Amino acid sequence: MALERLQQALEGVINNIGIEKTTELLESFNNNSSITASEMGKVKLIATYVSSQAIRLFSLEESKFYTSDIREYREARMACYHILYTYTKCSYAKIGELFGKNKRGILYYCQKCKELVEAPFFDKEFAEKYQQLDKYTIEFIGKL
């Protein structure tokens, strides 16, 4: 199913802009598909974007996002940590600095998030929100 979708999308792009430009586009995306920790300005921008989208997707109050111990807030932050770790190549400590948390907490929540995403039947609602947040993040990074 996913491979078929990819094939259709590629054919659509090729029909619109041609093989040469499609190749250039894919090479550019491949070279810029993740942000290195040395690009701290972009990392902060992505962190702000991911946090704001998590607040919206999880239906949370912005003022409580970084401090609340309520499950939904912890899960939303957990999704942010994991997505930032995946796409920015930042260390757990750097991500912790962005959220005012320690390295161990970030490591724990990244591992927990990975488990929940790999076995979505345990918490289907979280997995769906995570997938949506992931999709929005990829689209955002693609525009940087």
Folded structure, characterized:
There is one protein chain. The chain folds into two domains: 1-31, no CATH class; 35-143, Orthogonal Bundle (Chromosomal Replication Initiator Protein Dnaa, Chain: A). The protein has seven helices and no strands. It has helices at 2-17, 19-31, 40-57, 71-88, 92-99, 103-118, 124-143. Helix 4 (71-88) packs parallel to helix 7 (124-143). It starts with a helix and ends with a helix.
Task: Summarize this entry quickly.
The protein has 144 residues and is mostly helical. The chain has helices at residues 2-17, 19-31, 40-57, 71-88, 92-99, 103-118, 124-143.
List the helices and strands and how they pair.
Blueprint: H1 2-17, H2 19-31, H3 40-57, H4 71-88, H5 92-99, H6 103-118, H7 124-143
CATH topology of the largest domain: Chromosomal Replication Initiator Protein Dnaa, Chain: A
Describe the sheet with the most strands.
none
CATH architecture of the largest domain: Orthogonal Bundle
What is the CATH superfamily classification of the largest domain? DnaA protein, C-terminal DNA-binding domain
Unreliable stretches (pLDDT < 50, length at least 5) are none
Q: What is the tally of beta strands?
A: 0
Q: Total number of helical segments? A: 7
How much of the polypeptide forms β-strand, as a percent range? under 5%
Helical proportion?
over 70%
CATH class of the largest domain: Mainly Alpha
- Roughly how many Å is the radius of gyration? 17 Å
Question: What are the key terms here?
Answer:
144 residues, mainly alpha, Chromosomal Replication Initiator Protein Dnaa, Chain: A, 2 domains, 76% helix, globular
